[in-house]
Design goal:
elongated, four-stranded antiparallel beta sheet, Alpha-Beta Plaits, alpha+beta, 2 helices, about 120 residues, two-stranded antiparallel ribbon
């Protein structure tokens, strides 16, 4: 079992969700997060250029069995990848993290492991 975490641009969420559904992945968790990577976006506030410390993003978390890792990752990439390297002054389309998932327990039934996912 793996936990796949993707940090994507906010406006790409619908595309990523549709791509996941097309790939047969229907259970996801989404959170609003803020952060920054290499990109720096300048904004004008009261006539002065300001570089915001944190940029709003979306965090998508998906617990999958090992057989679905590549399918899930490919679906996220297909939905989140933009046409150009720089969109709206932001560099990059996000990141995907894959971490081992030791246990999963479905609270309602008490099922454990890959059956609970």
């Amino acid at each position: 079992m793996k936990l796949i975490t993707a940090i994507i641009r906010s406006y790409q969420l619908d595309q990523v969700r549709e791509s996941l559904i097309s790939a047969g992945i229907t259970r996801i968790t989404v959170s609003r997060v803020s952060g920054h990577g290499v990109q720096k976006r300048e904004e004008v506030y009261r006539g002065k250029k300001v570089v915001p410390a944190l940029i709003p993003k979306m965090k998508v978390e998906i617990a999958v069995n090992d057989d679905f890792v590549d399918t899930t990752v490919n679906a996220i990439i297909a939905g989140a990848k933009s046409e150009s390297d720089v969109v709206d002054g932001e560099i990059g389309d996000g990141k995907i993290f894959i971490t081992p998932l030791e246990e999963c327990i479905r609270i309602r039934t008490g099922e454990k492991g890959s059956n609970a996912i």
